[in-house]
């Protein structure tokens, strides 16, 4: 599964010890995993944006120890962070990287992540928010009739998530302030159910 | 809303239109919350190209243990995403004739809609039978949670033509623009 590279975690521990190093603030296990998902769609621009050493260093410096990418049906291969035909690795900076296309359920991956980076699909957004995760959402601007951008921007306006673009992802991630996320209050079908019950005459 | 039934009904024949994207997820979330021993039997309507929605609804019903009180009806899709308008006129007409038979055979007492293109012909047929006095049914439309500042095309048609007895949105931001809509909370 996760095969360590030549200088994997041990060399990273050395770097962390050096004063003023990038990994100064790194606390093992504090940052947790980062999960990237495009849902059932394809969104190569998002995967390409994540597939960079700049992003991997930013995530590492923020204390994250793993980057798990669900890339969907897109054609882009993560050739920068992963070697050819490699599904998982550990980078020189200590970040574990893993990539897969689809899973029947990504609930476990969302549950075990501390940060979720996803497309603006309502399914992915609400799955992340309802699990209480910090979300960075990248709307796919190439879609036609893209009302989902509205949803992402509205939820950003309410403080529940942060929007980015493939270009701004590194700067958004490095500036990310964990305290700005307003806790998301889960919705409930109760009000709608009551209205329907009343309409058809089920009063109790 | 005044209820026409003389005494409270025991159960209500329910028809729900599914659709790809988030529509099916939201409809099944609502269905899960409804008392299915009273909203029975249930007929799910799907576009025949949308086998995923059909499979998901069947799977849910199996998990609820209520598979024997549901049925699945597949109708020709009225408009594929990105289909040219001219050819969509023909496929829409074809879908309408299917819907006449579908609605007449099932005779729903409650129609649940949330936005896929397929819901328009079903809604129009149900309304037509109601206007002719052949059916007594209620129509509920709830807009997708993905709609924050404008309604979907189906939502606009149903809102403007006042087709639904209850028209719901999931964000209060829509109420200023659509004052006849109600916001009774989010599904998620």
TrEMBL record, chain A:
GO biological process: dolichol-linked oligosaccharide biosynthetic process
Every Glycosyl transferase family 28 C-terminal domain range: 34-185
Residue ranges, compositional bias (Basic and acidic residues): 1-17
Pfam family, one: Glyco_tran_28_C
GO cellular component, one term: UDP-N-acetylglucosamine transferase complex
GO MF annotations in UniProt: hexosyltransferase activity
Region (Disordered): 1-22
InterPro entries (UniProt xref): Glyco_trans_28_C, UDP-GlcNAc_transferase
PANTHER family: UDP-N-ACETYLGLUCOSAMINE TRANSFERASE SUBUNIT ALG13
Name of the protein: Glycosyl transferase family 28 C-terminal domain-containing protein
TrEMBL record, chain B:
An annotated GO cellular component: UDP-N-acetylglucosamine transferase complex
SUPFAM superfamilies: UDP-Glycosyltransferase/glycogen phosphorylase
GO MF term (any one): N-acetylglucosaminyldiphosphodolichol N-acetylglucosaminyltransferase activity
GO BP: dolichol-linked oligosaccharide biosynthetic process
Pfam families linked to this entry: Alg14
The keyword Transmembrane is annotated on this UniProt entry: yes
UniProt keyword list: Endoplasmic reticulum, Membrane, Transmembrane, Transmembrane helix
Keyword Endoplasmic reticulum: yes
Protein's cellular compartments: Endoplasmic reticulum membrane
Gene3D superfamilies per record: Glycogen Phosphorylase B (3.40.50.2000)
Record's signal peptide: none
Bilayer topology annotation: Single-pass membrane protein
TM regions (residue ranges): 81-104, 110-129
Family: Belongs to the ALG14 family.
The protein's name: UDP-N-acetylglucosamine transferase subunit ALG14
Origin species: Ostreobium quekettii
């Amino acid at each position: 599964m996760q095969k360590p590279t030549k200088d994997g975690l041990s060399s990273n521990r050395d770097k962390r010890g050096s004063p003023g190093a990038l990994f100064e603030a790194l606390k093992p296990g504090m940052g947790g995993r980062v999960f990237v998902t495009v849902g059932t769609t394809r969104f190569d621009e998002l995967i390409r944006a994540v597939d960079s050493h700049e992003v991997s260093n930013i995530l590492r410096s923020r204390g994250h120890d793993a980057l798990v990418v669900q890339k969907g049906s897109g054609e882009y291969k993560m050739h920068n962070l992963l070697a050819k035909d490699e599904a998982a690795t550990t980078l020189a900076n200590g970040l574990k990287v893993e990539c897969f296309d689809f899973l029947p359920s990504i609930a476990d991956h969302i549950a075990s992540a501390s940060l979720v980076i996803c497309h603006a699909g309502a399914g992915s957004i609400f799955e992340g928010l309802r699990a209480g995760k910090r979300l960075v959402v990248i709307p796919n601007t190439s879609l036609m009739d893209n009302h989902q951008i509205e949803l992402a921007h509205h939820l950003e306006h309410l403080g529940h998530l942060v929007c980015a673009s493939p270009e701004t992802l590194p700067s958004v991630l490095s500036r990310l302030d964990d305290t700005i996320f307003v806790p998301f209050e889960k919705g409930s079908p109760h009000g709608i159910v009551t209205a329907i019950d009343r309409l058809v005459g089920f009063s109790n | 809303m005044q209820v026409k039934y003389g005494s409270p009904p025991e159960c209500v024949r329910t028809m729900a239109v599914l659709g790809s994207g988030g529509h099916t997820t939201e409809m099944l979330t609502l269905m899960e919350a409804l008392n299915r021993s009273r909203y029975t039997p249930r007929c799910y309507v799907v576009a025949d190209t949308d086998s995923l929605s059909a499979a998901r609804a069947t799977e849910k019903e199996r998990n609820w243990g209520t598979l024997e009180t549901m049925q699945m009806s597949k109708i020709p899709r009225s408009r594929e995403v990105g289909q040219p308008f001219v050819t969509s006129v023909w496929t829409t007409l074809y879908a309408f004739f299917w819907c006449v038979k579908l609605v007449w055979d099932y005779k729903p007492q409650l129609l649940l809609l949330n936005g896929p293109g397929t819901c328009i012909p079903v809604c129009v047929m149900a309304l037509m039978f109601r206007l002719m006095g052949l059916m007594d049914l209620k129509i509920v439309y709830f807009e997708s949670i993905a709609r924050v500042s404008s309604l979907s095309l189906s939502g606009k048609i149903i809102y403007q033509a006042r087709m639904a007895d209850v028209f719901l949105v999931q964000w209060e931001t829509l109420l200023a623009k659509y004052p006849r809509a109600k916001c009774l909370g989010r599904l998620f």
